[in-house]
Amino acid sequence: MAFFSGVTANTMLSEAHDKGTISDRELVFSNLFNSLPTYFLHLPTIFFIAAPFIGSAAAVYVGLTALAAILRTGAITIAGHYMLPPLPEGCLPCRLDEAEKNATPRPRSKRHGNVSRNDCPRSST
Known about the structure:
This protein is mainly alpha-helical. It has a domain at 1-84. It is built from five helices and no strands. It has helices spanning 6-19, 24-33, 35-54, 57-83, 91-102. Helix 1 packs antiparallel against helix 2 (24-33), helix 2 runs antiparallel to helix 4 (57-83) and helix 3 (35-54) runs antiparallel to helix 4. The two termini are 29 Å apart.
């Protein structure tokens, strides 16, 4: 979501934290991880504002800041791997099933007919 709106992504994180779905530490890492998509959202603006002022150095400037954003995201990913507890085995499918039950039903399209998730050959349930 942060590729489209950083505010929306942070709002979703805040709501998940308020519900108790994610811990304080997960909230902090998620917010930091959202910095890369938000950077790419603003990348064209940064370039087209910098280019008239500093010319060809704008490409170097934008390249260096993009590299810094990528390295920061990599460091956040590695730190999160070691600092966050792993999910219990089977936890993710349970959360997906729970989210599916709580989701508002969408009308079925004529194209897909009455195919449900349970009809999927990859589903194990």
